Amino acid sequence: MAGIFPFMEAQAGTLGKKELPLFREYAWDYGSGQMKLVNGAPVVVEGQEALQVWIYKALHTARYRYLGYSPYYGSELEKLVGSAYTPGATQLELARYVREALTVNPYITGVPRVEASFRGNRLEGSVTVDTIYGEVKVDV
């Protein structure tokens, strides 16, 4: 069957596909909110563990606030604090903000699940992210 442009042939597998280098990031201590250091030097992690650090930090960094970051890095989750949205609308907005924050990374292939719930006045979430290294789960 001829396509819409019969004089052009698509090159299979060449549209926007390129080999990505191994993802590296500094190790993160989630409890203290600081980089992990060994003898005063930062520890570097690779692959899925590095991507988990990037996801956590991207979701916990306010987008547009810091000039040192690209306008594509970070999330807009702070907009939900004190919002007048209904709980259902807040949960939908949380899912949208999370997907917008994470899908800018080429190592992330999808965000199939964003779960949110209220614990009193506190909104908590859990995110499942599909990456080129496998599935990653991060709490928001």
Describe the structure.
The chain has 140 residues and is α+β, with helices and mostly antiparallel strands. Helix content is 21%, strand content 30%. The chain contains 2 helices and 9 strands, in the order ββββββααβββ. The strands form 4 sheets. A 3-stranded antiparallel β-sheet has the order 7-8-9, with helices on one face. The radius of gyration is 19 Å and the shape is globular. The model is unreliable at 10-15 (pLDDT under 50).
- Spell out the helices and strands N to C: EEEEEEHHEEE
Assembly type: single chain
Number of strands: 9
Taking the alpha carbons of the first and last residues, their distance comes to 48 Å
Sheet with most strands: strand arrangement: 7-8-9
Shape: globular
Please state roughly what percent of the residues sit in beta strands, choosing from under 5%, 5-15%, 15-25%, 25-35%, 35-45% or over 45%.
Answer: 25-35%
Biggest sheet character? 3 strands, antiparallel
Q: Count the helices. How many?
A: 2
Give average pLDDT, whole number.
85
* Uncertain spans: 10-15
Structure classification: alpha+beta
- Percent helix among the residues? 10-25%
Radius of gyration: 19 Å
Based on the model shown, name its key terms:
single chain; 140 residues; alpha+beta; three-stranded antiparallel β-sheet; two-stranded antiparallel sheet; 21% helix; globular
